[in-house]
Automatic annotation (TrEMBL):
NCBIfam families, A to Z: hyd_TM1266
Organism per entry: [Clostridium] citroniae WAL-19142
Pfam short name (any one): TM1266-like
Protein name stated in the entry: Transcription factor NikR nickel binding C-terminal domain-containing protein
Length: 90
């Protein structure tokens, strides 16, 4: 299966769900390249953006798993990656 690079964005509106989301992120840490978490207290939500590498099935399964947590909305975007070599021409 083709490798992909993905960005997953989560908005967490239930503060009690943050621990569960963090647990799920920890379990998939081998696929996670970067993570940014921002507590938006004035809006009553937390926002997490995750950059990850894996197969389409792995990424979709992970995003779906996050979306099953109470008070968590998830969107993701994926692009195929041809190889694992870092590009130096950017």
């Amino acid at each position: 299966m083709e490798d992909r690079l993905a960005v997953i964005s989560c908005i967490i509106s239930n503060p009690e769900s943050v621990a569960m989301v963090n647990e799920k992120l920890h379990l998939q840490s081998s696929m996670i390249i970067a993570r940014l978490g921002v507590p938006c207290r004035e809006y009553g939500v937390s926002v997490i953006s995750i950059v990850m590498h894996g197969t389409q099935n792995q990424i979709s399964s992970f995003a779906g798993d996050l979306g099953k947590v109470d008070g968590v909305k998830v969107k993701s975007i994926q692009v195929p990656v041809a190889d694992h070599q870092p590009r130096t021409d950017l």
